[in-house]
User: Fold these one by one.
Assistant:
Number 1:
Amino acid sequence: MRPSFLRSAVSCWFLMLLWSGTSRAQSTAASPPQKLQARQKLAPALRTPASAYYQEWRVSVREPQQFRSWLRQHLPQARLLPLGTTGRLFQISNLKTDQLTELAASPWVEFVDVSNRRAREERLIPSSDLTLNTLAAVWHQFPELTGAGLTASIKEEAFDTTDLDLRGRSLPFSLTGRFVSRHATDMATLIAGAGNTGPQGRGAARAARLTSSDFANLLPDDLSGLQSDKVSVQNHSYGVGVENYYGVEAKAYDEQTVQEPTLLHVFSSGNSGEQAPTDGPYVGLAGVANLTGQFKQSKNTLSVGATNGISELTPRSSRGPAYDGRLKPELVAYGAGGTSDAAALVSGAALLVQQAYRETYAGELPASALVKAVLLNAADDVDAAGPDFRTGYGQLDALGAVQTVQQKRLFSGTASQAATSTYTLSVPTGTAQLKCTLAWLDPAAAANAPQALLNDLDLELQEITTGRKWKPWVLSSAPRLDSLTKAARRASDHLNNAEQITLSAPPPGQYQVLVRGYAVTAGPQPFYVAYELAPAFQWTWPVQGSQVEAGQPAYVRWQWLGAATPATLQYRFEGATTWNTVATDINLQQRSYAWTPPDTAAQVYLQLQAGSLTLPTEQFLISPEVKARTVYYCAPDALLAWPALPGVTDYQLYTLQGAYLQPLRVISDTTLMVSDADSPSPYYAVAPLVQGKPGLHSQLLNYQQGTSCYFISFLPSQLVTSQPIDFEVLLASTYQLVSATLERQDASGRYVALQTISPVTQTQLHFTDASPTPGSSLYRVRLITSTGQTIDSRPERVFSLATDDLAVFPNPVQAGQVLQIATADAAALQWWLYDGIGKLQQENTADGVINELTTYNLKPGHYVLRVRAENGRQWTRHVTIY
């Protein structure tokens, strides 16, 4: 019985083990519905058929400790690296892509996302016009607003900290392993360029500090580092592919803005406006929902599209909506070369708004939601009437944003569930438009959330005397092209954390702005409201004290909130009574006109006449361009000069000291002698004084670089010739020159005078050596000044040979150096070089006037060179190598 009992026990144990294994397999293998649910927790790019390659991913989890335990049990080979500060985001590696569904099936995993992708700069053609977005108007009307005391970060490649428009204001950052990028330098210049090198080198906030971080990491930078550098704006002018979901990067940016409410992130919308998304609810729809990166789907940041100089959306500017139908991009700005430029201008404008707020409100830095409300509220409506998925709330208006802050047209409060906050404002007679915008920093949603908005607030406007109410503008987000292009309508907004109401020609009186907590699940929720009482017309360029370049077409700009109205544009010089007509067929709704000012220096006015309306500008300058140059630099002295400008008697000199150009002195001459010993800097610029006011300054000169001492060129007509030798000399100036002499070096090495020109009255000189010495000769030109100084050109070697002659030089030649073979014509040659025992060492062909024979690897000794021309002539020359 014992064997039978053992067999039964073993059989029972085997069946139990088989049942246990089957049960365990059933408990760990995902059912088809579970697999489907797990796939929904994968980023769209990870839902394609799996491959066997090992990669890196990001995983967002609910309970980190439980997830770690689950991972050790089910995928023990996986490697985990914490990311960010929440403790719930990890980088995971050492898995095969076909294991991602198993990973996503974990009950502790919220979402599995892609890791860093290659970021691309979103700029095509360099361009800049800071008048369209009224940034230049801010400089003249509020010169104290320069971004001083604020810091912007440029996240991409490193910018050039030595650039003359950026130097002295860059915080330390590591360049190790990073490429110094022209694109990043341009973005830094658009944000905070000092304008030292010329008018195009000035950025929006010229005194702001700058720092840099690397866009190789697409997650937000470490917050402690941003806080340490006191960064209040970070610019992101880059993108990846078109992505349409709320991933871990979007979530992380929303989390960071809630953690640091005064930090504003500005993204370019992308240059993929003609593409169709390949995933998400708008898949396959051409020209919509093509923001380049899921981080741009964040709701507490700004995405910026690009327009050309007349506010037309550029074809490649990426459009919205966001994946869940939210309004994206929120703003557009000038950027004919791409959305990179547009984002940089908005970043610079945000710094000006922050500084205006800090100076108006006793040093306090505003919340980024307040800055967002101000920028969106001040924006000029373009494209379709009202907000749209192409241009958002409209064109950046920096001047309007700054005025909003300085005039304290702001409300703030805290919303709770079902509670309403009420604010009163007064609308004066003649107001063309009342506009108010609500914005708040919404808590981050879960990664892969079907809708990003969590706390839902409602904005409403009410006229007190009549009780009439107006709701904000909303757009249809249905996934059809005809729906996405429909005009905005008034309704409650339950998608966006920014809402806007506009009211045209509001009756004067008292109004209430109502903010209600419609669904505040994670409150209380701080919010901010900005409002504007806009007149029908306002000039935005030129403005008082501004300059336009003489004789060069440029846009004059205005804001108009009325109907289509024909107008005549005129200008008048200061002191004159006559108005000169520029154009008679301008529609005020164009809001701009390309005007070519007279080619003169003057103080002038513009005006638009429309029926009974006369709309004049303040006084501004027409400024000719000063084309200053370095005439010569004969260390330690240099001569700077520029052509006299009609109507200009005095010029303002500037020199670059520290980070900015500084006025040096006023002179009436058009030349300036400077010396290394006495000059405060090698950098100079010149501006005309137009009736005592400085105009546009010249491009910045460094007199120590790129300029020789008098000589621009000294060239023989031929390097090898059988005729008299002609020489052409081009001088930068004849200033203080007494004589110019052609000299030839003789056999002793001394230069002998051949021909002298005196006095020197022209900058182009001609010399001839009528009887050149046979063979090779060195020539130079010597200049003598009125101070007795002598300046020599660089020497030029010329070969004077008979028609059938051949020269070989230098001879002897040092081993490893080049031996030159010259003939009087360019006949094709073939040569053979033999050593002292007749062994062939080198053979070659050439067809130049001067040809080179290398002596590399040849031993010192005597050689025989035999040369034959294609016309049959032959030469033999003895060569010594030492």
Number 2:
Amino acid sequence: MIFRRGRGGASQPKVSLLKERSEAESEPGGEGEGEGLRPPDDTPHGDMAATRKKQSLWDRVRYLLLLTLLWFVLVWAAMADNPLLPFVDAMREQATAASWVFVLLGLELVRQVHFFVSERWARYHRFWTHRVFGGFERFTHRRFKPWTRFRVWRAMIWLFWIAVFALVAGKILDTSPVLALFEAPALLWKALPFLLQIIFLFFVIIIQFVGLFWFLSRGGIDTYMPDDIKTRFRDVWGQDHVVERVKENIVFLEKPQEIEAMGGYVPGGILLWGPPGTGKTLMAEAVAGETGHPYVFVDPGAFIQMFMGIGVLKVKSLFRKLRKLALRYGGVIVFFDEADSLGRRGALAQVGPGGGRPAGAFQSGCHGMSYLSPDTRWQLARDTLADAARTDGASAVSVNGPRPGRNGFFMGGGMNGGGGGDTGTLQALLTELSGLKKPRGFVNRYVRRLLGMKPKPPPKYRILVMMATNMPEALDEALLRPGRIDRIYKVGYPSKAGRVRTYEGYFSKVRHDLTGEDVDKLATITPYATGASIKDLVNEALITAIRDGREVITWADVMKAKQLKSLGPPEGVEYHDRERHATAVHEACHAVVAIRARRHLEIDIATIEKGAEYLGMVASIPVEDQFTQWRSEYQSDILVSLASLAGERMFFGGDSSSGVSGDLESATRVASLMEGYWGMGSTISSHAISNQLGMGTPGAGGKGAKEAEKEMRRALADRIEDQLTALLKQVERMLEEDRAAVLAVAHALETHKTLQGEDVLAVIEGQEGPLVDGRIYTDPAFRRALEAYHQAALAAHRGRTPVQLTLPASPEPPVRDSARTPSSSRTPSP
């Protein structure tokens, strides 16, 4: 607001000056007539016909009727006191005793006449509005502050109603109004028992509802005192970069003056998002443990209730408790786990029932594409989901299993519609996070105002709100804005160094004989392990050791636990010899090509044990943490995919099984993305953008456009087919050169059912592995035995008869120096 100096040095607000100017200009012929700004709802100054708005008939006569009715009530009361008094005499008596009613009737009549004239005479209306009442308003606005005017007006209203009460009470008690004010408390005291009965009945009814809603609003919120939490930042492993950022919030929580003294505000909201099991909840507990403040844990389902409005009550009750704890202990940490269940109103949540992520949209092939890199699997899954979404009402759920995520794990069913608490719950939470805080205390809020004193402002509550979710896209944008959630951190999969630290932390709690090299190797072959999965793996290895009657965890126990967690328990079914050999050859072709052609991944495990969703599997893992994919890597993925088709055709006389269908699908999709989207084919332009912009399709919407689009698709399909054909020929040459290696790996799989990646490499290279001694496969006589067995299996395949030869037995391997091969002798994959 702009001020200027007036007479006597007093500063006047510019608003008042503008009002005075508008009044001066309202005179006929005044300077600036019809120009300048006007207040809202004001008429132009040059309009001489401006009058008061006409009243309705009811507004004009309602107070007259009310006062007339009051006078007749007084006449009736006089006749009730004296039944012998005639009506006319009662009217004469009340005309003298209740003359004040006629005074009020006269004043009201004069007021209505004034209004009647103002509705028809503009000059008369402007005189009273701008000169009389306007001058009084200007005087009060100039002499009194707004708060003073408010208190004076409130006092006048109280005095008016007290006077009305005194007049009515005096008439009822037949005494003067002043004495009636002193006698009224005695009457109230006599009527107090009856009033208490009414109040008691009223509260009985209210308490029933209050008790019901209070009972329903309990639960779901746990409070931990500082001594109850033993977690510290040293217990959070593998997320050092996030821990450092969170530590800053602790500094601001404990020393807020450092930022507030410079005009800033303390960040009060943190969102931790990332895959499940990465340590979000553990990090919140560590924050509470480090600060020594109370820690309030909000259960994800606390705000999901049968009745509408219960969630709002819970939010209000929660923040009331938080404010009390913050004042008592100097700060409090509240943690909302699975925040998407409460704040679900984002883009991902705008779907109907069943309209969320499909519960398993892609897993094809004999082993669910586990031999592919995580990025390749993610691209294939994403395109499958897009294709499924474009179908006309068709289900997007694949019968082949769960969808592989970019992180290498299979991510199953998604969100089925609305989910969390009602909208009012979210709105209540948004209001509590950033709304105005009321002054505290009954005396502060009401008594001080009653005495004309300003309430004390509310204190600054040191509340650190932490939320965790694995679906940040489902959260409402209003919840994520600065001022509510000031900092958003991704708690992703730990790096290799973080996994090593996590493994060391959990292995330090149990007895084991793993070396530092073993732990480093374990961190390498579990690239997307989380803190929770690492803890579970170590625990499963301990259970395996206890089951075998040992107290010390060995490397073999860890590998068994890893296999169980990765693949699940095998079904225990037995293939007949012909199908067992075909499955082993199929997986051996994948394994040999993966070893020979691919360098960015190494084989983790190969198995022909039937699982719930596969017949056999060759799973691969990255050699190192990698965030960029290259053309050569995608081509090697296609080579590994086509190895099953090329191998079955080569080893089974041109025949092939239906198990290669998923492999061909994955190879075709990767080749299509390379050729039309990623610029990794014979052309550079993006097929997606060409379709979107309509380039190359003249006459859009006509027959020529459709023919041009068909031609583009046909040309793209030809290029994809040419690329796949060339790569298939390359795979065929590789398998022909490594035919002996394929049969060797197939024999090892048939013998041992499951092989680690090091054993697969040992078989191919003819070296000694942890489980399999690959040197036996370099023996020419044993290779001829393997070829003879394969020919017998081929003949049985053609004639659908049992295999006439038995599986060749492995020669006795040389005696090793120790019962366990040291980690240094395990040759890593290239």
Number 3:
Amino acid sequence: MHGTGRPPQARVPLAVVVIDQAGRVSHWSTGARRLFGPARDEAVGRPATDLMPVSGALPDVREPTDPAARGAFDLAGHDLEESLGGHTSYPAAGRARLDTSAGPRNRIDVLWWAYPLVGPGPERMLVLAADAERLSGDGGDRGDSGVSGDRERIAPGFALHTDFPAADELARGLPEILPSMSVGESARIVSQVLELGYPVLEFSQHDRVPVTADWGVSRRTERQERRAAAARAAATGVPSPRAPLDDTAEDIEYAAVRERLEFLNEVSGRIGSSLDLARTVFEVSRAVVPRFTDVAGTYLREQVVAGEGFPEGPPDATTMWHRVALEHTDEPGRWDDVVPVGESMPFPVHTPFFQCMTSGDPVLVPYISEEMGNAIASQFEKRDIRPLITHRSMLVVPLKARNVVLGFMILLRHQERPVFNDMDRVTGAELAARAGLVLDNARMYTYQESVAETLQDSMLPHIEPHMPGCDIATRYLPGTLLGRVGGDWFDAVKLPGARAALVVGDVMGHGLNSAAMMGQLRTAVQTMAALDLPPAQLLRNLDDLAQRLGDTYLATCLYAVYDPIVGELHLANAGHIPPVIVRAADGRSELLELPTGAPIGVGGVPFEAVRVPVAPGDRLVMCTDGLVEVRGEDIGVGLATLCESAAHPAASMDDACDTIIRSLGARGGRKDDVALLLVRMAGIESGDVAHWELAPDPSEVPRARELVREQLLEWGLLSIERTAELIVSELVTNAVRHARGGPVRLRLVRSGTLLCEVEDADHTLPSLLGAGPGVEFGRGLRVVAHLAREWGTSRTATGKTVWFELTAPRRRG
């Protein structure tokens, strides 16, 4: 309750009564017994007018038969029904002096509010009543003038959708004071009460007659006639018999217009709270039902729902429309089978729906007769919509923006409510225009977000969870702000010698330009890593490339090369946060101290590399600053939390990543995107590596085949023996031919695959050649490319290495 003057000083117990279609009491609360006298068993089933002073709110009023209710309207009794021509779709309110023999007082000053209820169920009215004397703060007797000690009066009224301190409490409390109602019935009653308006108590010097405007009647013509009559009366000096009613009638029309504007403003505020397309549609539907309509079905073009573009020009009979929402006050399930949400369908030409979506204008059907319902339903195949639309009033409004129809809403009213009129059409058109603009913004945001996500996904690598000598897990989290696309990336590149290059980088800034710059740098890192450049040299080349691309972007980058055979990390840093290493021996975690270096793009700054020994089972954590940095907090706090969470035991690599994300995310405040790369360095045991040095002589080729065959027999890899011998024979033959006197080295490495490397002293990298029928050379590498799982070449300090991989069967035991 709310007052314009001084508010009540204490809680006021409410009497809660529900009246059915026959005007009889179906629910009688404890507060009603205390206020009116009869117990629940005595009240339920009796005519409400026998028990309470609410006859003005009910049709077919008759004189109360209960002596306790006689004389009930001897003070300020008002009802909205009478003011508005007997309609039963709006709240009523009144004040009455009730004669009673119960209690120490013989007369009780009662304030009451009546809410009509629509929809399924027998309940048709909810009545709330209170003792007005309890509102004054004292229990003393008062005269008819109002509150004791002053000339104020308390008058009831209604404030539609008014924010006041007790609104949430009322919404929560109503279900609690309807204990005999089922959950569904209670929810329906509460939702309608909140839509119809909150009870308001006005403390003022004058009684305020409560008035709720009639939305179903347009008074523009009547107002013009009254103004013309008033003008004639002023000219002739003869007063018009209707002149005394002009101000009241115009006040009613003004109230109706003002209420519509308030409704539109409220809906605009409600539907503009999100750029999420689904949420926006839901907000629009909930805003109009049941306040403006009883049924609201929302249809959008399929391309709008998918976040795609669509062809220019008006829609036609082949345009597919997706039903995205259906809100109604009918019994549950009535609409689900005929018009299920999520269905896509075209609309026939000879229907009001097609007329609306092609013209872009609202279509008003005041009353759908059986004949019209049959005509509309005949246009649809395999669905009978007649029971859903016949005998109802319908308004179809387009959802459009920039003169493009994105969708439309079908609004239907029950027979009990006033039919849609021209004023409703204007209101519906304005509502649809505002909703269409919000939907278009949401559509564009969804489209841009889809483009951004596609770009981001295309630039982020899909890294295998297992590489020679290590296991890898990754996470990428987009930023929480609009323009979520950033320049964070991670990568893992397979290098010769069973090594792996591990990369994490961050282009400063956000947006598509940063993402594009990230894509260029990532491609460059992959290319230079494949050339097996040392970490410091790679960052030097990357810095030069960034300066050639432009001077508007900077990036940080951490580059590491892991050698599982030697058990060593070779790292270089370009302005990035340091990595964390977790030692398997004791579970201790620490930040690796690296030369920081300057970010990529600064130019002219040297980069230094360090070597860090690692043991099997050690874990390396590399991430971007979005994970550890929170605005207003020292980054050292985030790094300490990263070390602590990285050391936490985990069942798998994915679990370890999730633990880190949860620990750092619990601090809140993250807005930047995050890239996380976690590597468990398993190493490769010496027993899984075999290497030999061969003389640069053709006679060494059979020896090389014999060495490979014996080693594969020892490892139990006989299933790939013949293929390995054939490829090794080709590569050693080429190496001996081009060795230029230097030694030829052969190495086999068993990990998840079988890796074979042949190294010689020639710096010229071999390449595939076209081999015609008469050409003697050029077929060896074709055999390698056809038989090997992967193969490649790289330069070394003394020459080159040609390598290949074969899929090895899993070890037993």
Number 4:
Amino acid sequence: MSEPTTDVTEPPVPESPAPEVHTPAKKAERPTRKRMSLWDRSRLLLLFAGLWFVLVWADVADNPLITFEDSMRLRLEDGQWLIWLAGIELVRQLHFLVSEHWSGYHRFWTQRVFGGSERLMQRRLSDWTRFRLARLIKVLLLIALLAVVAGQVLETSPILALFEAPALLWSAMPLILQLLFAFFFVAFQFIGLFWLLTRGGVDTYYPDDITTRFSDVWGQDQVVERVKENIVFLEDPDTIEARGGYVPSGMLLWGPPGTGKTLMAEAVAGETGKPYVFVDPGAFTNMFMGVGILKVKSVFRKLRRLALRYGGVIVFFDEADSLGSRGALAQGGPPGGGRFAPFDQFGCHGGHYLSEPSRYLVSTAGRDAAEPAPDPDARRSRFVMGGMNGMGGGGMGTLQALLTELSGLKKPRGFLNRYGRRVLGMRPKPPPKYRILVMMATNMPEALDEALLRPGRIDRIYKVGYPTKAGRVRTYEGYFDKVAHELTPEQIDKLATITPYATGATIKDLVNESLIIAIRDGREVITWQDVTKAKHLKELGPSQNVDYVQRERHSVAVHEGCHAVVAYRIREHLQINIATIEIGDTYLGMVASIKPEDQFTTWRSEYEADILTSLASLAGERMFFDGDSTSGVSGDLTSATLVATQMEALWGMGTTVSSYQSASAFQIGTPGGRGHDDDATASARRALADRIEDHLSTSLRNAEEILRDNRMYVLAIAHALETHKTLSGEDIEAIMSGTEGPLVDGRIYADPEYQRQLEAYHDEVVQLRRGQTAKVITLPPVPEHEEEPTQAAASRAD
């Protein structure tokens, strides 16, 4: 017999509550109409009554035989149009009164009658069609109003008055023409002038006119990806608006010139197939106040029409910094872009062999040291004088008009919409959603007004900076594909490496200059030599074709050879790009270096290498010219001193840790601070100067040791510079490594016999410098290399 089974029922497992989905709450509407004041309810009725009594009084005044009662009776018969208007106004006020107390009646008119018709119009008619119909209705209403007025004047029906109106106009034409002539004679100089001044500066390109695509924008992939997001929202706004967001309508592209900001705006227009409106930077600069405001309004009026017609429009303001000032946007970018003040003197161009951070440091520090302390009163006066000139290049009111237009796209528009609907007790209809993408470009973002950059006007701010090495390679490939060339991928990669801050514009110009050099030489294919010549021409400019005397040519060559040898031996963060003794605008010669890769930090050892390279000229001239030196080392000493000062005083790269700048700012050890010695500041400065001098003296001795160990390499590079005037980094490397370079065969300088000839030539030039004679010493010729130097030396030893 089986045991009875009992069903065990497990308690139900409670289900986890479904996540709540937040839906945006709709704005609660009033159940009834808002109550009107007694004056608002009765003012039109009082106006009609007053007008009717004025007409009655006029009849009595014109004909004294008519009594006041007879005039009222006549007006009741002849002035029924005024009574009808008063009756319509009375019915309208009764309608408002009922809506203020009866919620069902109010909902019926607002939601079913007017709301239903509006929904029907929005569903069946596009924004462009509704715009055209509204304009047609406005014209018909204006004609009807003119017909009623003409009927009253002619004492006939409005329809007959329309047919009689041309004859009346023709009979009154002489008087009309006289009035028009007088009006235009007086007003043409103002109206016509202002209208003409608002023309121009705005170019409209329709979808078929733009052929630029994102595939044509090279080297800015990270910015292009962000810009594509704006295009998605522009073409499919419901994606974000259905979730309670809004479509970003403003974009600022900022960065150095030539990086592709304008090209990117054209690509946006080409990808979307929308009209593209280009606003010239000088369009808002006018001699008359108010013209810029009219031009801003004219531009946005055109943008609204194009947006309705094509479903969207892109407007691009180039050089947007001309529109306004007072802005403050932190900007970065490659250092050393400005004028290199410490090395403007006529001597060795000591800045070109420095790393970019060192060049920027030397330039700014030298400029700050040369400028006097600002006068607060003078700065205040400059601010006041600048403020009277308006807010930016556009003149007074232009920027404010632009800000208003950018924020006013959601305001109701149209006279009948804003005022006619209010007469009927209806709210003005909101404008259609204008799909206007405002794009701006500038290389001076700090000059833009902060009100212009706030979200809602400019929603996205992207930096279009210098392209990375990969971007430069892609840009070089794109431009070289358009011309015939024989450059290998390795050479294009090397070219991208030795042009670290090249933009799309400079790369295009370099390729074009290479093509010009090839055509000048009678060739159709660009070679690597054409590219290097074009690069040297763009960097250094054309030489002045001024010949040195021999002793000065040799001293400049030795000077630059010392820079090159020390830079090659100790600097790993930079590689030599070019060495020359051709006279330029502000230098007798230079050794320029570049980064082998993109680098954003600088180490202490790299700054030490920069100082050693700077001091190599002084150490070398003293060593090769019996303790003598030229004034050409002044720029080198300036750069070395400023870098050493920053290392000792600010960066903790010297013998102390504290920051001299911070100590001076907080008056540590100075009067009024923690110390009480009146000479504390002077003592601190002397101590800092002593540390800098010790630092530089040690670096100078190290540079002397390096040059002493590489004496023959200095003479070899000097000989190559005297022979060819300009050498590439590959040629310097060939001399230092004893290999064959593009222009120089470095193997010949490994021959001991040839080294003795170079040493003898140097001694003769030194003796010639002492005598200051016109004697010319023959430069050792370049021998033809037929066998390895080691084999030649062995054969001579045998």
